[in-house]
Amino acid sequence: MFLLGGITVWGQNKNKVFTCRATYYHNKFENRKTSSGEVFSQKLYTAAHRTIALQTVVKVTNLRTGKSVLVKINDRCGRNGIIDMSKISADRIGLNGSEQVSIEVLGKDYIDIWQKQNEMFADSEQTAFADGVIDSLLADRAVMLNCDIFIRLATVRESETNGFLDNIPAGFRSIVKKDKVYNEDFYYIDVGPFSSQDKANSALNELKKDYPLAHLIRKKK
Predict the structure, then answer these.
(1) CA angle 49-65-84, nearest 5°?
(2) Which pTM was predicted?
(3) How do 99-107 and 82-85 pair as beta strands?
(4) Residues 6 or more apart from 29 whose CB is under 8 A from it?
């Protein structure tokens, strides 16, 4: 968190929790363009905030009802201390007019979970089930974001390690790592770390041509 022109700016992609007042959009804004360029819809889980980065996912919890929802910030709100929510988002947490809520800033790394929520909550009969799944996905993502992504090419005997490393494609040699298997005469041969899941998947697809047993692993930072 830092101050910019007297305004508190929350760094995206870091967990931040604070409280503010929540309101919801008037229907007159339906189909109007938001600050992100997206068209506003009362049927999508979105919200406006003055300083949170656009396209950031936040978890909003009604302090009275205890109910939560994930919303994507796609618009700007001119008032300090306010998050302005779409009607469907407000209804999900039982918002009654303007109420105090807790905001957890998740980040852009949670967009895919936000999209799953859109699909899950489309069927009202699945709401209770969806709540549990969303919480589980959030917990899993928090663990993932505290890990580095590697590709494990193989487990190789110590005597064969140098020969194996010599044959690794040139484009990957600078990021190859070998870790001795505890109390064994073997080494794990890993490539990485990769800065994103997409980059790791792309590299994995390339490496699998020569290393069919290659797979992704995560190492705690």
Answers:
(1) 15
(2) 0.63
(3) unpaired
(4) 40
